[in-house]
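Reopening this one. Same input as before:
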Amino acid sequence: MTARSLPSSDARQPPALGGLNPTVLGLEIRRLLRNRRTMIFALIAPSLFFLLFGLNKAYAHESAGHSNVSAFILVSMALYGAVLATTAGGAMVSIERAAGWSRQLRLTPLSPTAYIMIKMLTAMVLGLTSVIAVYIVGIISRVPKMMPGYGYLWIVTPLCVWVGSLVFAAFGLFLGYLLPTENVMQFLGRSGRSTPWPGWSSSLAARSGGSARTPRGSDGSARPSCERPRNGRVTMTPESTGAAP
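Same output, byte for byte:
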């Protein structure tokens, strides 16, 4: 009876594409979709924001470019959800680093390049689900409208939003490798609470015919307001005081 010799390490061939295969990608996507907090911020929050602000009868049916305002808000909310989802999906690397999972993967034939590609694809899938969810809600509501002859924007705009979120998936990976878990979650929490529509309150007020009100005192006279020019001195403007120039 003779002992069989084990094959040498030189005879072992590395896996194709560094270990990147549909099985590993499917497991990563399934594990990410099981995270309830991520799914809430990626799917429910952007759709809820669209229902709150995109269906307002005061300005939803007004024209905005080649669509109405509701369609403009629809695209904005889809972009907001895709950016938040892809950034969070890429930043999951910090949790795996803290748990020691990345160190365990170094013992496998999975190459670092394939690992980064899997994380990027997983984040992009999460961003795609966010975009699809927002557009489904918008189509069901039947409020967003495109101008005649621009129906192709229903296909072009979600594709542009999804492809553009690739940058934020890479940004999430950068944060995951650069910062510890606590700092990454704090950064994402602040990003999630930030308002995705800067300056909309003034623009919508202008659309509805409103204007900025001058603060007045109890006697009805205009209160003087202060302006700080570039030289650092505080001056009183004639318009705010009501005096003639």
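So the earlier flakiness isn't reproducible anymore. For the record, The radius of gyration is 26 Å.
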